[in-house]
Amino acid sequence: MFTGIVEEVGLVQSKKKIGDGIEFIIRAKKVSKVLHVDNSICVNGVCLTIVKKINHEFTVQAVKETLDKTNLGFLKTGSAVNLERSVRLNDRLGGHLVQGHVDITGTVVGITTLKSSWMYTISFPKKFRKNLIPVGSITVDGTSLTVARLNRQELTIAIIPYTFEHTIFNQYKKGTMVNLEFDIIGKYIESIVKYK
Question: Fewer beta carbons within 10 Å, N or C terminal of the chain?
Answer without folding.
Answer: C
